[in-house]
């Protein structure tokens, strides 16, 4: 059972004194009546105040946010030619957010494609040179074989044999140089083709597309402006999935776990309760507020980022005193109940209420276990009215 604070009891006593004073002032011109002189109210139902174990909750506040939010920025630089979106507009995944001027990139692409064509022409010439050098090398090798046999038979002079040998070595070198030049040309082709692909990729960046389907919640640029890589153009959020983020006191850290169910109410949907599921718990505690952030998935789509919500977090069972909600009345801005004395006289007692459990309400202070409280014919009761037999 919760301890009553001195402040709460003081406020209750002050409220009770104020109500009694009001009642006394209103009866200055009337003859004072004792409880025995007043007409008794019969058939009043009473309950005995009892405590019991109930699930207790921590009441928190939170903010609704989209699960997926993206700040869309271009990857290339260019002037914005068109931007067919506005705040609040729905966009499809891959839909156009903005189109940038790509004139310079198209010129670069034409230059890169020209380099590819030039390198491919050079490769054809290099192929012919390799074929010619290969033929010369094969001829030199056959000539060398014949002259080597003649040299062994001493048909030719050593000088003639040396000349043939030298021509054969030169043919081999010519073939190797032609092969190397062909490899260089092939490397130039690969490099030029890579440059073409790079420029084509940059050209694709001139169209800024939505990363997923959603709604534009903020527009940060307009047609005619200069777009730079990393400069935000719009903010888009996915309207299919939302969650509520609430700050939980560090004292309740042990009561929260991933997968726990929370009750959420939104001011934008009064009277409706959402069942949220804890999906993330930020492990770090804010040293300023001594709280940590809990994120819970909401099953309801089509909400809005920034909506205010109230979260009820189950924190365990505790012994609490509850009364039927019908027993609690409002007097002068205070909550009160009619407690019944041993001699069956109704007395207006100020109470402090807490959580609501269906048709019952928690009483934090003002009555104790064992007290009797009226729960019917409340509109016929006033402080000091005697009660007759109950039905």
Describe the structure.
- With 391 residues, the protein is an alpha+beta fold.
- The chain folds into four domains: 6-57 and 317-380, Beta Barrel (conserved putative lor/sdh protein from methanococcus maripaludis s2 fold), CATH 2.40.420; 62-67 and 238-316, Beta Barrel (Elongation Factor Tu (Ef-tu), domain 3); 69-94 and 208-237, RNA polymerase II/Efflux pump adaptor protein, barrel-sandwich hybrid domain (OB fold (Dihydrolipoamide Acetyltransferase, E2P)); 103-205.
- It is built from three helices and 21 strands.
- The chain has helices spanning 6-26, 103-152, 158-205, and strands at residues 46-48, 51-66, 69-72, 78-82, 90-91, 96-100, 207-209, 214-219, 226-227, 234-237, 242-249, 261-266, 273-281, 291-298, 308-324, 329-331, 334-340, 346-350, 352-357, 360-365, 372-374.
- The strands form four sheets. A six-stranded antiparallel barrel has the order 2-11-14-13-12-15. Strands 1, 16, 17, 18 and 21 form a five-stranded antiparallel β-sheet that branches. Strands 3-10-8-5 form a four-stranded antiparallel β-sheet, with no helix packed on it.
- Strand 19 (352-357) and strand 20 (360-365) form a beta hairpin.
- Helix 2 (103-152) packs antiparallel against helix 3 (158-205).
- The chain is rod-shaped, with a radius of gyration of 45 Å.
- The model is unreliable at 1-36 (pLDDT under 50).
């Amino acid at each position: 059972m919760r301890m009553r604070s001195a402040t709460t009891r003081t406020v209750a006593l002050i409220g009770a004194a104020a109500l009694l004073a009001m009642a006394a002032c209103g009866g200055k011109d009337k003859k004072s009546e004792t409880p025995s002189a007043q007409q008794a109210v019969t058939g009043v139902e009473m309950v005995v105040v009892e405590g019991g174990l109930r699930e207790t909750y921590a009441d928190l506040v939170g903010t609704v946010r989209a699960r997926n939010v993206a700040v869309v920025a271009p990857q290339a630089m260019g002037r914005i030619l068109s931007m067919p979106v506005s705040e609040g507009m729905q966009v499809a995944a891959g839909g156009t957010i903005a189109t940038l001027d790509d004139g310079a990139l198209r010129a670069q692409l034409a230059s890169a494609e020209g380099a590819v064509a030039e390198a491919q022409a050079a490769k054809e010439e290099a192929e012919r040179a390799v074929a010619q050098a290969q033929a010369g090398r094969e001829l030199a090798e056959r000539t060398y074989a014949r002259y080597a046999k003649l040299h062994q038979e001493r048909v030719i002079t050593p000088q003639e044999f040396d000349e043939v040998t030298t021509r054969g070595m030169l043919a081999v070198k010519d073939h190797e140089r032609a092969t190397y030049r062909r490899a260089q040309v092939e490397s130039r082709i690969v490099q030029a083709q890579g440059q073409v692909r790079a420029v084509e990729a940059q050209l694709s960046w001139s169209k800024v597309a939505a990363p997923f389907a959603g709604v534009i919640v903020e527009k940060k640029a307009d047609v005619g402006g200069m777009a730079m890589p990393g400069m935000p153009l719009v903010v888009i959020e996915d309207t299919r999935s939302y969650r509520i983020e609430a700050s939980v006191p560090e004292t309740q850290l042990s009561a929260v776990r991933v997968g726990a169910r929370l009750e959420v109410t939104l001011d934008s949907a009064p009277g409706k309760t959402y069942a949220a599921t804890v999906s993330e718990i930020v492990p770090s505690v804010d040293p300023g507020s001594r709280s940590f952030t809990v994120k819970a998935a909401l099953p309801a789509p089509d909400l809005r980022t920034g909506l205010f919500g109230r979260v009820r977090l189950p924190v365990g069972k505790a012994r609490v005193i509850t009364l039927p909600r019908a027993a609690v009345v409002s007097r002068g801005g205070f909550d009160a109940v009619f407690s019944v004395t041993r001699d069956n006289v109704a007395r207006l007692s100020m109470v402090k209420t807490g959580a609501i459990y269906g048709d019952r309400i928690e009483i934090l202070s003002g009555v104790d276990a064992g007290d009797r409280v009226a729960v019917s014919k409340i509109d016929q009761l006033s402080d000091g009215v005697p009660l007759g037999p109950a039905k």
